[in-house]
Design goal:
12 strands, single chain, alpha/beta, 6-stranded parallel beta sheet
């Protein structure tokens, strides 16, 4: 089976973590005999303008057996120029020329500006997709389904699935990591600054400075509390490096030179994100702000603490029954609350491990149903040929 996969492949480690899990499940529940043609969706962004959704694109898609869009946060409704209000800027007439099965796979939904015209365009696009006999629309379990319920009819919502993010089923090879010392309890730390305005609003600049100070104090307390602890910062995108620098420059002394390292920033297809995922697997526990940093840590069985301030990321933890791991960074006393959560994790380490196992087990049950639908879609289409 030839899969034509339109998604992001060269910009965020988390995207590849997601795709690996999707491919694993396709091989498990549909067929192991697959080839994948990856199409970078950023080339079709207005900002990149490297390619267009035109007849040539349709011809390329129709050369495959299954057209997959996502996962990724591609149903972000915010673009006035777009025919759908999103970066998937395709005419309905052109979309209707796709004659192979279509899967919108675990796509994230956001309404950024609340522009009613964009919402109407997007809803019309979804209604057109839902009318197609060979099209599955699914959104990931981060609150996206509830966002759609606020703008779509009950009839349309019956044709949209809420499914686990592919990152819960990711996998990785084992690597030698020079940034991880032997005989230490390594803690993987992923921090961000690219969505500060979304987190803190108009007070973002000052709030971020306060957050950095609190996080630096937490790291100092953490490293001095146990000589076995060692921190590896794990960047997923370029701006994560900036966030790491902002924190490290607040910490002075021998701890920084002896008990901290930074993993490489691996863009593109250097390791298909597996090197980074392997770091999360080998961590004693993870402290993660990014969506897929949290998900891949759980997938690898590693206990997590989530200092986050994005509602949809909190919604993910709520959906999987692990809201207790969240430290909302918008509510102050971050250092104190992170230490409390750390003590809770260490004192109930086996409990955290068992919670991870429960989550993955539940996600597998949901995922099996989803991929069985994809399999039926593919088989029904082949039987018609």
């Amino acid at each position: 089976m030839k899969i034509i996969h339109l998604a992001s492949f060269n910009g965020n480690v988390g995207d590849m973590i997601n795709h690996i899990g999707f491919y694993n499940n396709i091989r498990k529940y549909v067929t192991s005999d697959i080839t994948i043609k990856q199409i970078e969706i950023r080339n079709y962004y207005r900002s990149w303008n490297e390619a267009a959704f035109d007849q040539n694109f349709i011809d390329m898609v129709n050369d495959g057996d299954l057209f997959v869009v996502g996962g990724g946060d591609f149903f972000r409704i915010e673009w006035d120029y777009s025919l759908t209000g999103t970066t998937f800027n395709m005419q309905n007439e052109l979309f209707d020329k796709i004659n192979i099965p279509i899967v919108f796979n675990a796509v994230g939904v956001d309404i950024i500006d609340g522009n009613e015209k964009n919402i109407v365009k997007f809803r019309t696009f979804l209604e057109n997709c839902a009318r197609k006999q060979r099209c599955i629309i699914s959104v990931r379990n981060d609150g996206s389904y509830d966002i759609l319920k606020g703008i779509c009819t009950n009839e349309l919502m019956k044709k949209i699935l809420k499914v686990p993010d592919g990152g819960f089923f990711t996998s990785a090879n084992y690597y030698e990591h020079i940034e991880i010392p032997e005989n230490k309890k390594m803690i993987a730390l992923n921090i961000t600054k690219d969505r500060n305005d979304e987190v803190w609003g108009t007070d973002a600049e000052k709030s971020y400075v306060d957050f950095v100070e609190e996080l630096a104090n937490y790291i100092l307390l953490l490293l001095t509390s146990n000589k076995e602890y060692y921190i590896v910062f794990v960047p997923h995108i370029l701006s994560d490096i900036e966030a790491i620098y902002d924190v490290l420059r607040k910490i002075k002394g021998v701890l920084i030179t002896t008990r901290v390292s930074i993993a490489p920033l691996l863009n593109g297809d250097i390791t298909t994100a597996e090197y980074i995922t392997d770091i999360y697997r080998k961590a004693y526990f993870s402290i993660c702000m990014r969506y897929h940093a949290n998900i891949s840590s759980i997938a690898m069985g590693t206990p997590t603490i989530a200092p986050i301030g994005i509602d949809k990321h909190i919604a993910l933890y709520k959906d999987i029954g692990l809201k207790n791991r969240v430290v909302d960074i918008r509510t102050g006393k971050i250092c104190e609350r992170l230490m409390e959560k750390t003590d809770e994790l260490i004192n109930d380490y086996d409990g955290f491990l068992n919670e991870n196992k429960r989550v993955i087990c539940e996600m597998e049950k949901e995922c099996k149903k989803y991929f069985e639908q994809i399999n039926k879609l593919v088989q029904d289409t082949q039987n018609m040929i």
